[in-house]
Amino acid sequence: MARPRLNIYLDDPTLQEKIKIAAARRHMSLSAYALLALRRQLAADGLLPAA
Question: N or C terminus of the chain with fewer C-beta within 10 Å?
Answer without folding.
Answer: N
